[in-house]
Design goal:
Layout: H1 9-18, H2 24-30, H3 32-43, E1 50-54, H4 61-73, H5 86-92, E2 99-102, H6 111-120, E3 132-136, H7 144-155, E4 162-168, H8 176-180, E5 183-186, H9 207-216, H10 220-227, H11 232-245, H12 252-260, H13 268-287, H14 299-317, H15 322-338
Parallel strand pairs: 1-4, 1-5, 2-3, 3-4
Length: 342
């Protein structure tokens, strides 16, 4: 039986700051070319032993690298990671035994860190997937000695089960020999395609409502469809009430059932699904320490809330009982928010 390791302080910091903020759907929406490259690789089982992800500061390189790692070991890939199984969650929290996430930025990556990473991955894989991964974020911030050690690691991988994923925002600063021995994937800057002012009917809405529209409509075409969706205003109101619920002290179950979720609405399932999509964005930003609204939720609580919400949303797509699913979400969210003082 595979054992779980206790996360190091560095791994906890990486997890709380930068994961699990990219799903396969996010990748398809924001990086369709990258999505197709990875989809083809995993579909044909021709995953490269080493990747170099390149892009600017706002291309979420580490998140994409983590999605690749999740896809290697996911319990239910299709073909990329589901993002919600136990294995995917542990990868996102840096708790996967056979994986290492190295991120020393803005400090320089040292040779000793590369050697320690090699040592950590030297043993036989312990997890059920029997695959190992190493992620090194901002490889351009490596000493020459570290780069040479990494080159040897790439040239002489310890096993065929190991996949190395490197990221950089300056590919010209990466050793040419490292670039030549990896599959380079260039990620385009993430540019949001919609502006509030472009839509006459909603240009004067409040910030919470616009946040909700953005969460569910990443493109102009999506927004046009969303504006025609009669149930969406109810999803916005449910989202707003949920944020108010987070400020309350009484039990979530009672307040949530009576004041937030109207499960008697004929469109209740659709309203809940859209509300969960909005909450996913909210929790992602909280987990990345980009608190969108003045609500006292810590990054780790945001991360746990995101995992919970994605799991519930996944269950609803498989026709889970709506009332039971919402009740479960309310109970678990209350537990998450009580787990630590913020």
């Amino acid at each position: 039986m595979a054992r779980k390791k206790k996360a190091t302080q560095q791994e906890v910091e990486v997890a709380s700051l930068l994961v699990p903020l990219f799903t396969s759907h996010d990748l398809l929406t924001h990086q369709p070319v990258v999505y197709q490259i990875l989809k083809n690789s995993f579909n044909t089982q021709k995953v490269n032993h080493a990747y170099l992800l390149t892009g600017s500061d706002n291309t979420q390189l580490l998140q994409i690298a983590i999605l690749i790692a999740q896809s290697l070991v996911c319990e239910k890939p299709s073909p990329l990671a589901c993002g919600v199984c136990d294995t995917c969650v542990r990868v996102s929290k840096s708790l996967y035994t056979d994986g290492v996430i190295l991120n020393s930025y803005p400090a320089s990556i040292k040779k000793d860190e590369i050697l320690q990473m090699q040592n950590d991955l030297a043993n036989t894989a312990l997890e059920m997937a029997a695959k190992k991964f190493a992620i090194i974020h901002h490889i351009e911030h490596s000493s020459l000695e570290a780069s040479n050690a990494l080159l040897k690691f790439i040239e002489e991988p310890q096993s065929s089960s190991l996949t190395i994923v490197l990221t950089t925002t300056d590919e010209n600063s990466v050793l040419p020999t490292i670039r030549s021995r990896t599959q380079m994937i260039r990620c385009l800057p993430s540019v949001h395609q919609i502006q509030r002012e472009d839509f006459e009917s909603i240009k004067d809405i409040d910030d919470l409502s616009w946040f909700a529209y953005e969460a569910c409509a990443p493109t102009t075409l999506d927004m046009q469809r969303l504006l025609e969706k009669e149930s969406f205003p109810a999803s916005i109101e449910t989202f707003k009430k949920t944020l108010e619920l987070f400020k309350m002290t009484q039990p979530f179950m009672v307040s949530g059932q009576k004041q937030v979720f109207n499960l008697k609405d004929p469109n209740a399932r659709m309203i809940v699904m859209d509300t969960f999509t909005i909450m996913n964005r909210f929790f992602k930003e909280v987990a990345a320490q980009e608190q969108p609204f003045p609500i006292k939720i810590s990054p780790s609580q945001g991360l746990n809330g995101l995992v919970l919400t994605q799991q519930c949303q996944q269950n609803l797509t498989h026709n889970a009982n709506l009332t039971l699913c919402v009740d479960h979400w309310l109970i678990e969210m209350e537990r998450i928010l009580k787990e630590e003082s913020v």
